[in-house]
Recover the amino acids of this structure.
């Protein structure tokens, strides 16, 4: 007997680029102190008021099967939220509640791709994107965004690949890993490519509450895009509810009907007490969301001040999300080489840019997810090591 090719080749049959992370976690398990600047996990927990609402719902009996599409109150709340953000009329019939954003990404590609179809995504990318596409039997094809264009994807580059045949395009703004917020010009270019080549657009917007510069524009709001766009959202980043696993897809009613059928045969919905807590959180107002986002905006400002006083490490425009993408090419090292050296020498763990594709070769991603003083100390150590390597290289 053999396992399916699909399951054994989710990561393309090779490395997923996360060896530095796994090595750092093993060091911690072995009792070695490591400063982790790796994954996007808040250093503050879920707000006690949300946990209280979750507990009350569970104790009150909402622990049985919930409606597969999601409870009506939460679907209505998400619909109202998305309509307010985008200006596009949205009802509960445009919304499916999912077990987190990752489940929504998988479902969206199931809805838009047949086996063997080409599914496009932007490089640098969140690490699960290619595997998600392979998981539905489609073929992942990356379109590179370039450092010299501040990692804003160019419509011409996407069109050059889409013209060869594709079913879908996955974009992510605010972007993980780069922290870039796609401009209106970028999104309008993407929209034109989708219309020209009849692509479904899957828009991962889980960082929509973490925008430090510019504005978040959902491509669903652009002319003639609502009927070809599926928006993925989540409670994970906006409300520090990563472990609660509650997200959604917003799209045309016909698509949502089919996705409800898919959910019936896969996830069978999201626990009701989790959904009640999510509904409470979304109705708690902007102040709670701002409170969750505030540490990252503050640390971004601290990082920009520190980085302004050195000339070795470059900062990709940090416009949103909880990450910094740092340009380490002045050291002559790849992102993976620098990250491994930093871990070995100073017990500081960061993610190599290569973990997110090849467009960020020579970069590293730093998660702003530890207390301010520890974050600044680690960032200064990182910069000092980079300067030392760069100076030694120049002297040779």
């Amino acid at each position: 007997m053999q396992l399916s090719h699909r399951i054994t080749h989710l990561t393309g049959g090779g490395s997923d680029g996360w060896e530095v992370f796994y090595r750092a976690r093993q060091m911690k398990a072995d009792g070695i102190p490591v400063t982790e600047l790796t994954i996007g996990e808040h250093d503050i927990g879920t707000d006690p008021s949300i946990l209280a609402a979750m507990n009350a719902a569970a104790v009150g009996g909402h622990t049985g099967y919930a409606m597969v599409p999601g409870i009506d109150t939460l679907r209505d709340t998400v619909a109202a939220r998305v309509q307010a953000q985008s200006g596009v009329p949205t009802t509960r019939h445009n919304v499916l509640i999912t077990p987190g954003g990752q489940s929504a990404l998988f479902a969206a590609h199931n809805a838009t791709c047949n086996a063997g179809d080409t599914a496009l995504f932007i490089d640098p990318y969140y690490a699960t994107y290619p595997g998600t596409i392979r998981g539905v039997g489609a073929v992942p094809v990356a379109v590179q965004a370039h450092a010299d264009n501040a990692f804003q994807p160019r419509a011409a580059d996407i069109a050059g690949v889409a013209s060869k045949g594709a079913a879908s395009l996955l974009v992510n703004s605010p972007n993980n890993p780069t922290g870039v917020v796609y401009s209106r010009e970028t999104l309008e270019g993407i929209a034109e490519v989708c219309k020209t080549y009849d692509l479904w657009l899957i828009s991962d917007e889980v960082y929509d509450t973490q925008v430090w510069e510019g504005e978040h524009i959902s491509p669903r709001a652009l002319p003639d895009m609502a009927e070809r766009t599926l928006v993925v959202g989540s409670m994970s980043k906006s409300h520090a509810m990563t472990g609660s696993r509650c997200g959604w897809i917003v799209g045309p009613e016909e698509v949502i009907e089919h996705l409800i059928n898919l959910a019936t045969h896969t996830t069978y919905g999201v626990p009701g007490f989790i959904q009640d807590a999510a509904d409470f959180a979304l109705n708690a107002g902007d102040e709670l969301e701002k409170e969750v986002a505030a540490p990252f905006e503050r640390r971004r400002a601290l990082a920009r001040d520190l980085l302004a006083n050195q000339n070795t490490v470059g900062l990709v425009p940090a416009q949103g999300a909880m990450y910094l993408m740092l340009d380490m090419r002045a050291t002559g090292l790849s992102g993976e080489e620098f990250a491994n050296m930093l871990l070995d020498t100073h017990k500081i763990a960061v993610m190599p840019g290569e973990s997110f594709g090849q467009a960020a070769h020579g970069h590293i991603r730093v998660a702003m997810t530890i207390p301010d003083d520890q974050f600044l100390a680690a960032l200064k150590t990182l910069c000092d090591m980079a300067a030392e390597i760069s100076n030694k290289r120049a002297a040779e």
